Amino acid sequence: MRREHVPTSDESTTQAPSRQPAPVLVCVHGLSGSSRWWSQLVPRVEAAGPVALLDLPRGLAPIDLSKWVVEQLETLEAPVDLVGHSLGGLVAARVAALRPDLVRRLVLIAPPGMGPQRSLAAYVWPLLLTLRRSRPSFLTRLTTDAFRAGPRNIVRGGRHAASTDIRAAARSIVAPTLLVWGARDRIVPATEGPAWREALTDARLLVLPRAGHVPMVEAPDDLADAIIAFREKPLDQLRDTVGV
Question: Please, are residues 206 and 179 in contact by the beta-carbon 8 Å criterion?
Fold first, then answer.
């Protein structure tokens, strides 16, 4: 487990008096991932403020990960802007529901939890197709992280993602939320996005046409632009300016 804090590009520069400092952007990776999955995104978003990358502890059961993330956020200056990918998105959503005081804005990237419950085996073929189309550099990273996670953690994490229904908890999320999907996502398809949008109090959905299940690797520029725009717009303008 590791938490990495990436500073702003020039923390010594005095900001204009009329502009409030951006909150910390906290990123939570997905199943069998690591903080390294955000490496292409960080340089694109860190100019707006500090970034903290969380490495989820592999020994914890998936249901306990949200409590662990809450403990990490309590050490930072709250509220933060929280980003979660895939299983990490499910974790981030639970955090926002449990502790709305800790989350200013929420970004969920291809989160499970709203679609039809499926068996773990139903994910195998989409996963194989995704791996076949992945870049060699990312495949190496994914293989290394999966080896570190171990088969037991991958299986129980996959089962949790496949069987969880978060609709009830989602009603407690009050943070403005950006839902991001890759149009080519075969693991958690973009067709599940509208269910999330309907379940949340204040959400907008963005589908990235050039991305699959891992937009921060497949379309980092598009994802960074969306996150930056979402974080900077006044709350009363978000619904009109960030669309589907």
Answer: yes
Contact indicator for 107, 178 with CB cutoff of 8 Å: yes
Q: Is residue 16 part of a domain?
A: no
Separation CA 242–CA 62 (nearest Å): 31
Q: Percent of the chain having pLDDT more than 90? A: 58
The answer to whether residue 91 sits within a structural domain is: yes
More confident residue, 13 or 157: 157
Cα dist from 160 to 26, 118, 125, 153, whole Å: 23, 10, 18, 10
User: Total structural domains in the chain?
Assistant: 1
Question: Which pLDDT does position 148 carry in this prediction?
Answer: 72
Question: Is residue 183 within 8 Å of residue 190, measured between CB atoms?
Answer: yes
User: Which tens digits make up the pLDDT trace of 138-176?
Assistant: 666 666 766 676 667 767 777 888 889 999 999 999 999
Q: Can you give 24-87 as a three-state secondary structure string?
A: CEEEECCCCCCHHHHCCCHHHHHHHCCEEEECCCCCCCHHHHHHHHHHHHCCCCCCEEEEEECH
List the domain range (segments joined by +) for residue 37. 3-8+22-241
In sequence order, what are the beta bridge partners of 146? none
What pLDDT score was predicted for residue 115? 74
CA distance 57 to 2: 8
